[in-house]
Every structure is written in C-alpha cells, then in structure tokens.
Amino acid sequence: MERLTHQMKAIFVLLIAVLCFSNSASALHIIGGDVVYRCKGIDTVRKEVRFEITFTMYRDSKSNGAQFDDPASFGIYRGSGNSWSFFRAVAGVRVQNIRDIDIQTNNPCILVPINVGVQSGQYIFDIVLPIINENYMISFQRCCRNNTILNLVSPGTTGAAFTTEISAEAQRTCNNSPTFKDFPPVVICVNRPIDFDHSARDIDGDSLVYEFCTPLTAGGTDGSTTPGSPTSCTGVTPSPQNCLPPYEEVTFAAPNFTFNKPMGGNPVVAINSASGIIFGSPNLLGQFVVGVCVKEYRKGKLIGNLRRDFQFNVTTCETAVQADLKASLKNNGEYTINSCGEFTIDFLNLSTDIKYIQNYFWEFDIQGKKETFNTRNVSLTFPGLGKYTGTMILNKDLPGLSSCSDTASITVNLYPSIQADFTFEYDTCIAGPVLFVDKSTSGAGPIQKWSWNFKEGKSVQQNPLFQFEKPGLKSASLLVEDQNKCIDTLTKAIDYFPVPALVIVEPTTFTGCVPAEIFFNNLSKPIDETYTFQWQFGDGGSSNKLSPTHTFAETGTYTVGLEITSPLGCVTSKTWPGLIKVVPSPTAGFSFTPEDPNLLNSTLTFTDGSAGASSFVWLFDTIGVSIEKNPRFTFRDTGTFTITQIVLHSSGCADTALATVPIFPVVTVYMPNAFTPNNDGLNDAFAPVGIFEGIRFYSMVVYNRWGELVYETDNVIAGWNGTRQNTGATAPPGVYAYVVTYLDPKGVQQQIKGHCTLLR
Fold first, then answer.
1. Does the CA dihedral 489-493-499-505 come out positive or negative?
2. Which residues contact 671 (CB under 8 A, 6 or more apart)?
3. CA distance 336 to 338
4. What is the DSSP string of 126-151?
5. Domains of the chain, CATH where assigned
6. CB-CB contact of 418 with 480 (8 Å)
7. What are the start-end ranges of the H helices in 274-430?
8. Are strands 689-691 and 668-670 parallel, antiparallel or unpaired?
9. CA 498 – CA 512 distance, rounded (Å)
C-alpha cells in the first residue's frame, strides 16, 4: 500500500505546473509519431507499386502549443544510408481522425493528474512508386518538442523527423510494414513497475526484433510557425525538397540518459527484444523522450525498419483505494481495537474510495477457527477475554490489479470491564471543602489513574478535597483508567449551598457626611442571589439585597447587622457595632450684586449665604480664586462665567454651590434730528451715534412724507446721504420718518422711531 507524503504531493503540484507551461508563440507540442505503409497492389506492366501511407502524430493537448499542421507536406526520397536524393513531395495532406488518447495506467485504482493530455491525428495518402533497386524514404519534419523534457539537451529547440523506409524487397513483394498494437501510456507512476506491451503485428508473418533507438530531429525555431515558412532547414516546418535525409539524431543528456537508457530507473527501464515489452521502474519525475525501432526480417533478411518516438510523463500517482477502520490505534496499516468488558465488536469500515472498491474480504482467527465475511461493515461476538487477530482486504484476487487492493491488519484486545464510582461528603451548613472518595473497580486489578473535573478546578488524586468558590448545583466528573488503559467516566450532581464560614462586609466609607449614601459590598463566600439576606442599618432602615446601598439622613454612630440564610435553611449572622459614623455637613449658598452687571459695571460683590461653614474657596470660572468669605471680583471682558463656592465644615465635610454670571456689553443708540448732506465734512449723513458692540440683527429704514421708502440698511455704521437709494436722485429738503430695529446683547428686540430734518 502506498500513500502520498507531503513532499511527494508538493513535487506532484510542481510537476503539473511544469507540464502546463509553454511558450504560446512557439510550436512546443510534439509528443511523438510513427509512419507505416500498406501495399495496395503491383502493376506488373508499368512495374509500379501502390502504397497507402499513414503517419500518426501525437501532440501535447495541454501545453497551449501548436495544433496539428493542416495541411501538411511530406517528402519522398530514394537511396540508402547517407546518400539520398529528392524524388518528389506530397503536399496538401489534411489531418484526420483527431482524438484524445486515454490517460491510462493499466490500473483503474491509480489516480493520475488531470492536466496532462495527448491528442493523435493521422495523415493518410496514397503514393505510386516505380519499382527500383533502391530504397524509398517517406518523411515528415517538424519543430518542436516540449522544453520541459528532462533527458534531452535543449529540447525546446529540438524538432522531430518521422520516417519509414520501403526497401527494394518490400517493393517487389508488395510488403506491408509492421504496425504497433497500442500507444504507450500517457502517464507513468514514479517508483511503480512498467509492464507495457509495445509490440507490433505484421500481417505478412515476418519476424520482428525490438530495440531502443535514437529519435531523429529536424527543423528549428527560426521564423514563424506558419507551415512552409520559412523553408530553411532550421525553420519550424523545413522544406521537404530542400531538406534531405539523413537526419540528425537528438542529443541525450549523457551520462545520466542515453538512447538505450532513456529514463534511467531502478531497475533500469528497458525493452525486451523478442516480445517488445517495456519494463523497469522509473524513479525520476519528469518528461522523457523514448525511441523504439522494430526491425522486420524475412527468411533472415532485413527488409524494413519501423520507427516510433514518444514522450513518457513520469509523475506521482495516488492510490485510489486505501483500507481504513475506526480503531483505538492506527499505525501504517495496522489497526488495534481495544474493548473493555464488551465482547461484541462493530467494525466500522472507513476505507476509500468506495467507487473503486469491488469487494471486501474479512477473516478472523477465533481460537484456531477462521471466520470470514464479505460485507463492508462487520459485527462479531468474540467468545471471551483475550487477543484476537484478523485482516480486511479490499478488492481481493482482482487479476492484474495488485495496486487496486489494500489490506488492514487487525488486532482485537478484549479486556475486563472497568466501572467508575465515587462518593462525596461535606458540611451542608458550614462552607468548607468537599471530600471525594473513589469507589471505582476494574477486573484487571487496581485503578492506575484518576482524573477529576469539578468545572472550577481539576485533580489527579485518588481521594481529593475540593473547595468550591461559589454556591450552586455543582457537577463532579471522574475518569479512571486501569493497567489495560481501559477507561470509564461518571458524573454526579452536588447541591452546594453552605452559609459562609466568615461574613465579610466592606462599606464604601466608615465615616460619612450627612446625608451619607453608603454601599455595603458583601464579600462573604460562598453566596449568590439564591440566598436570603436581612440587613439592619441601626437607623431603622433595612434591606434584603445581597449588597445594598443605604442613605443615613442624620448624624450619629450606627451599628450594622446582617443575617444570611442558605437555600437549604442554614443561617449565619454577624453584627458590627458602631460601624458607620455620620458627621455634620455645611450648606453652601451665596448671592452677588449688582444682579444685572455689564461691561461698564463689571465689579461684583459676592455675599456668603452658607450655613455651618468654617472656611471658603471661591472659583471665578478659570480666571480667579479667593478664600475670603465675601469677596469682590472684577470681570475684564464680556461673557458668561461660572462661579463656584466650596464651603468646609469643621468635621471635614464640604458642600458646593454654583451660579452663572453674564457680563454683557453696553449698547447705546442715539439718533440725530437733522443733517446737512452738502459734503462739507460736517453732519453729511443721517446715522446713529453711541456704543454699538453687541448689537445683532440691526435694521434702519427711512420714509418720506408720503410713506415711500427712500433708504434702508443693515449696517449700523452706515448712514443716509440724502439720495434715493434705488434711483440715486437727490431727495428734497424736508422732514423724514425713520425706524431703527435691533437685538441688544441680552437678545431683547429694541426699536427707535422718530423724524429727522434734511437741510440743504
């Protein structure tokens, strides 16, 4: 059983990122290909033979590389070895039969990456060849391969040449080339054995011999990706007429990789020369180009050579079937189930992925007798205490799918039962610790561990003493464990409502100024609102609150008492003689004159009106301080000021009185009774005179004797110059009426009406 580690998963993600990368402007897409031929007949008169040529090309469908060339051009050459001449070209061949190659691992239970894809496309055409004593070669040239290939030098600029040779013997005998039975798997799982049948079939019955060989390369990255352009031999689609065989071989990244060790591996990936089976175990992640040649022999004579190269994608694969059970302990496929006192065990199967699981096989050894089951979950009653073993196998005996199976080894330990139990004792009336006494038992012997949980605290002692801080309905839980690590738990409720062993009260003050408002903080423990409280404050007042507030209205010394009754009826009480002392307090108060001050009359006399005061402090807003009993103070500016009087009693108690004093500006408005607008600089305008600071919303209007408006303004310092405001015409001499309206500094509206004489 294999499981992915975090490191392997990280490598898997990295590999997928690499496989999906491409230069979108390039032709990085070639996976592999092969060329085969089928004889369709000989014309003995014309001494010609007709062949059907099928070129199958494979491209990376996930790399965003180039599509299949459509149409494509093929070259036909005659000669042998290193000497070839151009015979003719076959142009305009359209691609057909495009399909996606299934991503197979020969095991349905192996999960492979989804971002790896291969498409195949075929170019099929007929050629008629004169029968000659030389060989013919049919070839297709194209750049380029994926630049992420690991076993080639500069793979991104390395193209491919796919060829087939038709020997003189093949021409004369109307031979058919071998054809491969299948395409190699798109994805190979790292560190898993390869067992792929890469053999070919030959309808003529010729003998076939298999070997790894070096793939051929042609073309380059010069120019555009448009088929036929440029026509140089280093272009993306070399010209068949100009670029003749022999073709160069790809350069393997030696010494780690060679043509006969294209993937490395342990054991090394190789091919069986007789069967064509590729075997070995690749141990490196990456992409690898592999070339396979099939030599065709007839009566011991070599008459043909079928070539194919293709790209293996070696990646991390995850097993889809994994055995798993609910168990007390899990350790690398071994599952331990411990049961304490219960002999019927329900085995809960957690194995995944269910859709890949075809059968379940359980086998248990019950005192030498085998018991088997075939359901997903099993319930089994064992005969008694002891240790039992078993196995659970997923997909048992599925032929050829060993990775589709997984096994869980099971150990069942049946131990004696364990029973948690305890008692507790405490004084229900007097607050104190609760004694817990363990009464637990185990068939395996003495209890080994105790774990107590009281919500407010914990303990690992066998018989602990625990003090609850607050009263109430409490719970205590005990978990015990024996030598077999069997455990049991028990929880009990405790009515914990004792009265405090010590009654503690903390008032906010022990000496207060009359009227003294004092908060009595009840610090007794344990108590809460469910208890009954009866307070006596010594002045006739009482309360039933847990922590009350009480006001003492008279001076004197007071004794305070408290009685506490628990919900269970337990009572405790305490009295504090002379606890509270209430002392006299003064009463602050004052007056001031003048009562209506202004900026011209801003010196005020403050007269004390307090009672019981022995000393004084005056605060004149933020601008002055005095400790006199009846101080005087002069305000230098207008505004509203807060006056604070603080008086102190000889007892140390204080009182405060506050008042606000507004200091208003002085406003005087006088209107003349005549004016002479003759521009002599004297009395040229009709305007008010006086003190205007503090005036708001000012308005002056002037009417003639017929009630017509001749002038108006909202500017207190503006005046009428004797012309009509709307027309600019000179107003005649005479008597005119006016109305002046404004708000004074106190916000009171004032109005002056009268007549003025215009003299010229």
1. positive
2. 688, 689, 738, 740, 752, 754, 756
3. 7
4. EEEEE--SSEEEEEEEE--B-TTBSS
5. 6-315 (no CATH), 320-415 (2.60.40.10), 418-496 (2.60.40.10), 505-583 (2.60.40.10), 590-663 (2.60.40.10), 668-758 (2.60.40)
6. yes
7. none
8. antiparallel
9. 34
Nearest to 648 by CA among 617, 686, 679: 617
Please tell me which residue, 219 or 20, carries the higher pLDDT value: 219
Distance CA 320, CA 506 (A): 72
Amino acid at 623: I
SS3 for 488? strand
Task: Give me 627's structure tokens.
Answer: 């400790």
Return the SS3 of 703.
strand
Q: Are strands 624-626 and 590-593 parallel, antiparallel or unpaired?
A: unpaired
Per-residue pLDDT at 108: 60
500 Rama sector, left if φ>0, alpha if ψ -120 to 50, beta otherwise: beta
- Comparing C-alpha atoms, which of 661, 695, 667 is closest to residue 600? 667
pTM for the complete prediction? 0.49
Give percent of the chain above pLDDT 90.
71
pLDDT digits (tens, 9 = 90+) for 3-46: 333 333 333 333 333 333 333 334 457 889 999 999 999 999 99
Write out the DSSP string of 3-66: ---HHHHHHHHHHHHHHT---TTS---EEEEEEEEEEEEEETTTTEEEEEEEEEEEEETTS---
Burial class (CB in 10 A: 0-12, 13-18, 19+), 276: buried
Residue 110 CB burial class (10 angstroms; 0-12, 13-18, ≥19) = buried
Residue (of 757, 706, 712, 705) closest to 739 by Cα position:
712
Task: Kindly report, residue by residue over 656-677, the tens digit of the pLDDT.
Answer: 999 999 988 888 899 999 999 9
3-state secondary structure of 399: coil
Tell me the two tokens of residue 555.
């001076």
Residue 149 · residue 166 · CB < 8 Å? no
